[in-house]
Amino acid sequence: MKLIAVTNRSLCENEKDFFSRIEILADTLKRGDRIMLREPEMSVADYTALAQKCQLICHDTPVKLLLHIHFETAKQLKLSRVHLPMALMRVGIPVGYSCSASVHSPEEAAEAQKLGADFVIAGHVFATDCKKGLPPRGLAFIRAVRDNVSIPVYGIGGITPENARSVLEAGADGVCVMSRFMTCSDLEDEIRAFQNA
């Protein structure tokens, strides 16, 4: 199972806990898996400083660091991949970069592919505290997205080791996990549970 770990520092106990989790993710995730550094509240300068530390942690591991929105940081760190919301995807991909996109409908997924996205993250699949009050889109949504694109699809939102396989069976190539990886008491065991799902 392909995994993308999405960061959220505000869910961690403190900075030490956050970097400890990044280290465990880098050591335990497999080749082709990614850590998406998604910290939208940070200034560009602070985000770049954080990304530099995370890049050092991921160095010499098979895990790729995926930046979120910040092309300036990507240029400084010599990283070529950035994840974007659709609003920024529509602005265009700068020369020399590859981008993935967050989508919330099969039509957006098809649009993202046409705009050059090399994969899409589709959600939210199941109920999640990150989207309180918003009904989940369910597995039928993943099937519809899969039917609309030929690029890889990752499901996001309320995904657990218990329901992850159903997301793959619906057509996803992998899943994204945020809250569980940022808050669980034994991160290595949690990653293994997803890998064995």
Description:
This protein is an alpha/beta fold and about 200 residues long. The model has no long low-confidence stretch (mean pLDDT about 95). It contains 9 helices and 8 strands. It is globular. It has an 8-stranded parallel barrel with strand order 1-2-3-4-5-6-7-8, surrounded by 5 helices. Helix 1 (about 15-30) runs parallel beside helix 9, helix 2 packs across helix 3 and helix 5 packs parallel to helix 6. The longest helix is centred in the first third of the chain and has 15 residues, at about 45-60. Helix 5 (about 105-115) links the parallel strand 5 and strand 6. Helices cover about 40% and strands about 20% of the residues.
Outline:
This protein has 197 residues and is of the alpha/beta class. 41% of the residues lie in helices and 19% in strands. It is built from 9 helices and 8 strands.
